[in-house]
Amino acid sequence: MSEWDAKAAFLNIPDDGLSFVGFANALPCHPSEAEAIARYLHRKKLIWLSMRAGHGRVFPAAMRPGRGRPKALGVEQRPLIDPALAGFLTQAHPTFLKIRLLLGTDPGGAWNEHQAIKAEIRYAIAVEATKLMTLCRTFAKKHLAIPVTALRDALWLDRPHTMPVVAETQPDLAPAGSEQLAEQPKGRQRLSRNLTDEERMIAYIEAAGASGIAAYEIANKGKIARDRVAVIGEMFENMGVIRAALVRTSDRGRKGTRYFMSKYGEPMIGEGGRLVIAS
Q: Do 43 and 53 meet the contact criterion of CB atoms below 8 Å apart?
């Protein structure tokens, strides 16, 4: 390889070194021969060859230190994802985990085979999706520099199999969603103190929606005696305005009277008298 000795004398190697490919172009020689030639010239002390993790880099002979080898140059690597977004995904992981666990409890089959169970699972998933949407709104307000599209893309990249389920009830998180998240609906206004007991009670039942409201809740919120709530409820039920059912809202617990607006139809009651709310 003595022919390379003369060529090495005219090599212009920068202080930050050359890769084997750059060294082959500078000589010139075939890239497959670059490592062998570099090792030969290194032994001749015409260059300095540094090997790190199987990768070689050629430096000028003057860079040869007394002991050790030239320090590795610091290469700045930009993060692949915004650190704030990465932190948000970590915060959202418990919600995604709950949704995956709920999906795993689906018994499968047609809807009419396990209607009550499937409706309960869908309702629970919708609740978790709403929690995720609340997290997204809070994040978007705190980090105005991060566009909503970047937030949405990060969610779909991190959980591609779960986000389609979330998007069913939260269309703003769908891939084709808007560039701004819709504002969270404001809470209902307080009822006027001038309402009668009948007006107050029907207003509470109307505001409760399809899930209905328990008799004790009406008594507590409206400051109406329990026996008075029962009398008014029976009156409205006879008029066909509302429906009443003796149900429980959890697997355990006592059954209680719950009122529903008639426009929502008959309440769906599952096994053991538990109320099932379809999303």
A: no
CA distances 58 to 3, 6, 68, 88, 149, Å, are: 18, 17, 15, 43, 45
pLDDT in tens, 181-222: 766 655 555 555 667 888 888 888 988 888 889 898 888 888
| Strand pairing class (256-261; 242-247) | antiparallel
How far is 193 from 207, CA to CA, in rounded Å?
A: 17
Q: What angle do CA 99, 101, 102 make, to 5 degrees?
A: 65
Q: What are phi and psi of 213, to 5 degrees?
A: -145, 140
Count of other CB atoms within 10 angstroms of residue 144: 7
Q: How far is CA 78 from CA 81, 82, 83, 155, in A?
A: 9, 9, 11, 20
Radius of gyration of the chain from Cα atoms?
Answer: 35
Helices then strands, counting H and E runs in the chain, come out as 10, 8
Q: Check if the beta carbon of residue 5 is closer than 8 Å to that of residue 37.
A: no
Token readout for 120 is 């309960």
pTM above 0.85, yes or no: no
Under 8 Å between Cβ of 256 and 247: yes
- Contacts of residue 240, Cβ cutoff 8 Å, sequence gap at least 6: 262
Integer Cα distance of 137 and 236 in angstroms: 40
CA angle 200, 202, 204 (to 5 degrees): 70
